[in-house]
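Summarise this fold before class:
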Amino acid sequence: QFHSLAPMYYRGSAAAVIVYDITKQDSFHTLKKWVKELKEHGPENIVMAIAGNKCDLSDIREVPMKDAKEYAESIGAIVVETSAKNAVNIEELFQGISRQIPPLDPHENGNNGAIKLGKQTSQMGRRCC
C-alpha cells in the first residue's frame, strides 16, 4: 500500500534492515523484492542487513537459516535471526551494521571520523533520523 513512498525513506541512508518472518516463506520472497528495490533505487553503497524475525517460534519455521545465509551472502548482506518479542539479537544486529558503515572523512564537518547522523523531514512533515 505504501510502496511508492519507500524511496523517500531510504534516500541518503547508510544502512537498511530488511525484515522477514521465519515462520512465513512468503515474507522471505517479499524481502527479495525489497532488496531488488534497494539495489535499483537506493544509495549505491548502502549496508544491507537481513533480519529473520520471530526466532522464538523456530518450532514452526518455514525459512531455513541456511537459505537466509546463502541469500545474504549472494547480496553481501549481514544476516541475523532476531526476536522482537524477546529482544534476541537486536543489539547484535545493529552492532553488525555499525561495523560495516564506513566512517566519514575526519576533515568533513570537523567530526573526527564519526558517523554522520542527522534529521530529515519528509514531505509528509514527519521527522526521522
Summary: The mean pLDDT is 81. The CA atoms of residues 22 and 63 lie 5 Å apart. The radius of gyration is 16 Å. The beta strands are 15-21, 47-53, 78-81, 120-121, 127-128.
